[in-house]
Design a protein that fits this description.
147 residues, mainly alpha
Length: 147
């Protein structure tokens, strides 16, 4: 999958899971009918939130984003639905591309070597990504919900 498609997919998924979580919160706090929506969609949103953040860092390294764009991209995951406008902005600003830079260019430094390994081996990279999302989700569950 190319960087543009991957980023668009996780940005839209993050926004959709925000909508599901907000629906669950409405059912729990406004109608007082069920907590199930918050329990289920809260977990789903948390997992997709982590995936979005990891993909943002991956693109930051591979496409040599300025740190300010990384911070903006990560911050876009916090307010509901902000990942979609950020993804559109990133597309217009040329921050996304049709190819991974580190598939053809020699990496410099530890982060680029790791990122290069991930993008040159898509199946293993996806597996590492899934394990990272699962591990970070586990840490988040141990730490507990946001206050």
């Amino acid at each position: 999958m190319n960087p543009r498609t991957l980023y668009r997919t996780v940005a839209v998924a993050e926004a959709v899971t925000w909508a599901l979580l907000l629906t669950g919160m409405f059912l729990k706090y406004v109608t007082a009918t069920t907590e199930l929506g918050v329990q289920v969609f809260g977990m789903v949103h948390g997992v997709v939130f982590i995936a979005y953040c990891l993909v943002t860092v991956l693109l930051f390294v591979d496409h040599k984003w300025p740190v300010s764009r990384l911070v903006l991209g990560l911050a876009a995951a916090v307010p509901p639905f902000a990942t979609v406008p950020f993804e559109r902005y990133a597309e217009r600003a040329g921050l996304l591309g049709d190819s991974w830079r580190l598939r053809s260019e020699a990496p410099h430094g530890l982060l680029e070597r790791l990122t290069g390994w991930l993008v040159r081996r898509p199946a293993q990279g996806a597996l590492v990504g899934l394990v990272a999302v699962a591990g970070l989700t586990g840490v988040a569950l141990v730490v507990g919900p946001p206050a």
